[in-house]
Specification:
Blueprint lengths: L1 H4 L4 H8 L4 E5 L6 H15 L7 E4 L3 H15 L8 E3 L1 H12 L10 E3 L1 H15 L5 H13 L4 H7 L4 H19 L2 E3 H14 L9 E4 L7 H10 L6 E5 L15 H8 L4 E4 L2 E2 L4 H11 L11 E2 L8 E5 L2 H18 L9 E5 L5 H10 L4 E4 L8 H14 L4 H7 L9 H14 L3 H9 L11 H23 L5 H12 L2 H8 L4 H25 L16 H15 L8 H4 L3 E5 L8 E6 L15 H12 L2 E10 L1 E2 L4 E2 L23 H11 L6 H13 L1 H7 L11 H6 L11 H5 L1
Helix pairs in contact: 2-3, 3-4, 5-10, 6-7, 6-9, 10-11, 13-26, 14-15, 14-28, 16-17, 16-20, 16-21, 16-24, 18-19, 19-20, 20-21, 21-23, 22-23, 23-24
The structure holds adenosine-5'-triphosphate and magnesium ion (MG).
Magnesium ion (MG) binds next to helix 3.
Length: about 750
């Protein structure tokens, strides 16, 4: 027992060991909600005798699931945690649909349409139907409808008679048809169809003894239904969340779900946590002042467990270029002047909008600072990676027309647009998948209005041969190796290296590296998911579909790809020396010693297109509360895109000046000591601090260009800091004080 409870405070312990059937842990950021949830899982397994197959734990991202599994491994040991159903709502639903989807007519070899696939389908529909709606808007609207549990049947019934509504219903219907003929489920389907499955066959979850959910404030209606259904057998649910961090309203999350849950389960016990273990008081005070601008919310005060720390920084720069350059210079300065106390991997740049990363990426690359991107353009979406994956997707689920269409003539094999259009038409007319028609066409059996040209026919033959060879190999490959070996097979047969060299003379090497990286990842991910994601346990009276062997491993690998939002960091050693760039949305639940939030101006945050200002404020709150020790916010005075002057975000413009300063800290040994304490690290020695100063001194000229030389407030003068003899400092005295 000790090991799970060690280091927890009283309220956390109460939550971990609570006997309540329905438990809500509601608490602000950094108060240990996720830690408590993890400990509760460990406690249920080891002390309440729950068997891991009968416990479901929902996290917000695949990465969070992985981290939780790691922590559990440490807490409960053995292989208890490996049998646990631990993942995102989407991955858990996928598991149920693979095993039991046949009961509601879903073939168990379905593929997953990611957002690009969905958009691709809509774009093709637009070509056919010539509708005026923006494809992205149409996709989002469909997704909104589905997230609220509206299936096309319901839309059909309630459709109003306006031309616009009818047009939308038509797009919706055809979109659903396209998914069906391609044997694809989109993200919303994974949830919706699982709800349908569990409503009709509750026996599938008759074994479930406990359900635990992290980040509950961001669940939508369908996920709320899922919660009820997954836990229907024993009605034992623990959720943790924080209404102040609800940031997915734009994707139909319902902040109301916390209250609805209390109404639906009258005996709900609520536990609040109050201590913050993450951030310095300086960061916490600022964050709290910001969130309290929303006067509608119930006020709660958070206690910080850390020292005051250094004031957060709000800095204006001339333009976005200087903004990026300043951030880079600050990163260099702090990694050197803290004598190794702050490393690159301690630093994150959190963005309101993904496009903001462009200049930052460039500035970091110029400065030779490695970074990894989260939640922006994914590794898996890079062109060369995507091509290989689409081959694998076609081999795995040939009826997936989206994947097939994107590779049908890539690399080029003389299959022109006209041929593709004709094949599509024939598929549509026959209500068959494109793959079926292609196979018929190469045998001369397809009903085509225009005969194929010889070269096109030859091209199709090559394609069919390759896909079939891949499928045949799947039967003989060792399952765990299959995805990796298939990637190598496809790359070889396509002469992919030569293709890249020809196509991308500038950076083919890097692209080829990505392909190799993909095959490495295929090996890791596969091994991991094989041990982690066990078969669902048998439950009485429900027949499971069994797909096994390489086919199953491949389809798990592809599902992982489709459901992951982050580029997996490379090798461990390398990951240590990279800073992180992430959208704020994807940074939820995470923490870093140092956080930069650029572009804090009106129109960026709050975003000009955002409907809900309070949600934008919560977004900034989430960003600020990721920081443990140092928080920087920046904005350019001129936005180069519009040449208009930017106005400081309303969330930062009044009443909080005393919580902020305009230049980065002087990293004297008092400040570094504080940072070390907050981070629970050993403070660096005088020698390593002095070494940092020397290193900076040698490069000082670089900084003159970067730090604005105009009248705007300057960062602390490097020379003053460096010339000051550290040895003269008295014990505990800060450099600031000493210089006065
Ligand atoms: P968020 O709302 O941002 O998801 P959270 O409430 O889930 O935050 P955690 O991520 O669980 O918070 O914890 C924040 C940090 O505080 C972690 O580094 C965690 O290890 C630490 N922590 C939590 N509880 C304690 C405790 N009792 N003693 C020491 N450290 C703690
Ligand atoms: Mg958390």
């Amino acid at each position: 027992m000790e090991s799970f409870l060690k280091g927890l405070n009283t309220a956390q312990k109460a939550a971990v060991t609570s006997k309540a059937s329905i438990l809500q842990v509601l608490a602000p950021p950094g108060s240990g909600k996720t830690k408590t949830l993890t400990s509760r899982v460990a406690y249920l397994l080891a002390h309440r005798g729950f068997s891991p197959q009968n416990v479901i734990c929902c996290t917000f991202t695949i990465k969070a699931a992985r981290e939780m599994r790691e922590r559990l491994r440490g807490l409960v040991g053995g292989d208890l945690e490996s049998k646990l159903m631990l993942g995102t709502f989407h991955s858990i639903c996928r598991r149920y649909l693979v095993t039991y989807g046949h009961l509601i007519g879903i073939p168990n070899n379905f593929g997953i349409a990611d957002s690009d696939d969905s958009l691709g389908i809509i774009k093709r529909l637009q070509k056919q139907l010539k509708f005026g709606m923006d494809p992205r808007a149409a996709r989002n609207k469909i997704s909104h409808r589905k997230a609220r549990g509206q299936t096309i049947e319901k839309v059909n019934k309630t459709v109003s008679k306006t031309a616009e509504a009818q047009e939308f219903a038509d797009i919706f219907r055809r979109y659903e048809d396209a998914l069906a003929t391609s044997n694809l489920l989109d993200y919303d389907d994974l949830l919706l169809r699982c709800v349908e499955l569990l409503q009709r066959y509750p026996a599938c979850v008759s074994n479930i003894e406990a359900l635990l959910i992290d980040e509950f404030q961001d669940t939508n209606n369908v996920q709320f239904e899922l919660m009820k259904l997954l836990a229907s057998a024993k009605k034992r649910i623990t959720v943790v969340g924080d209404p102040d961090q609800s940031i997915y309203g734009f994707r139909s999350a319902e902040i109301e779900n916390l209250k609805r849950m209390q109404e639906y389960y009258p005996g709900t016990v609520v536990i609040n946590l109050e201590e913050n273990y993450r951030s310095s008081s300086a960061v916490l005070h600022l964050a709290q002042d910001v969130i309290e601008q929303d006067t509608e919310r119930p006020s709660k005060r958070l206690k910080s467990t850390h020292c005051y720390g250094t004031l957060p920084v709000l800095r204006r720069l001339h333009n976005p270029h200087e903004e990026a350059a300043w951030i880079v210079s600050e990163i260099k300065r702090m990694t050197k002047l803290t004598g190794g106390c702050i490393e690159r991997s301690d630093i994150a740049i959190l963005l309101r909008s993904a496009f903001l990363s462009l200049l930052l990426e460039k500035a970091l690359a110029n400065a030779g600072i490695p970074y990894k991107m989260v939640g922006g353009r994914r590794f898996f979406d890079r062109v060369e990676v995507r091509i290989i994956l689409d081959y694998l997707r076609t081999i795995s689920h040939p009826d997936n027309s989206s994947a097939l269409l994107s590779i049908i003539n890539t690399p080029a094999r003389k299959i022109g647009d006209a041929t593709v259009a004709e094949l599509n038409r024939a598929a549509e007319a026959a209500k068959m998948s494109l793959w079926t028609i292609v196979q018929q066409a190469v045998k001369g059996e397809a009903k085509l209005e225009k005969k194929l040209t010889k070269p096109a026919e030859q091209g199709l033959k090559e394609l069919v041969t390759l896909i079939k060879r891949g499928q045949a190999k799947l039967k003989v490959f060792e399952p765990a190796q299959a995805p990796g070996q298939l990637i190598e097979l496809v790359a070889k047969e396509l002469h992919f290296l030569e293709y890249l060299k020809k196509q991308y003379q500038e950076d083919w090497e890097e692209r080829w590296e990505n392909v190799k990286e993909l095959s490495l990842q295929a090996r890791d991910v596969t091994l991991e998911s094989l041990t982690a994601e066990d078969q669902l346990p048998e439950v009485d009276g429900v027949k499971q579909a069994k797909i096994q062997g390489a086919q199953e491993v491949l389809s798990r690998f592809l599902a992982n790809v489709a459901l992951s939002t982050e580029i997996e960091s490379g090798e461990e050693g390398e990951a240590k020396s990279r800073i992180t760039i992430s959208t704020i949305h994807s940074a939820k639940g995470l923490e870093w010693p140092v956080v930069f939030v650029p572009a804090v101006y009106e129109g960026s945050i709050p975003h000009s297109r955002a409907e809900d200002t309070n949600e934008e404020r919560r977004l900034l709150y989430v960003a600020m509360t990721r920081a443990k020790a140092l928080l920087y916010m920046t904005l350019p005075v001129m936005q180069s895109r519009s040449e208009s002057e930017s106005i400081l975000s309303q969330f930062l413009s009044s009443g909080i000046e005393h919580r902020l300063k305009d230049a980065g800290p002087i990293f004297d040994d008092k400040v570094v000591q504080d940072i070390a304490t907050i981070l629970g690290r050993l403070a660096p020695s005088q020698e390593s601090l002095a070494k940092g100063v020397t290193m900076l001194e040698e490069n000082e000229s670089q900084y003159d260009d970067i730090w604005p030389l105009d009248g705007s407030p300057r960062a602390p003068s490097l020379t003053t800091v460096m010339e000051f003899p550290f040895s003269m400092l008295q014990q505990g005295q800060s450099l600031n004080d000493a210089m006065k």
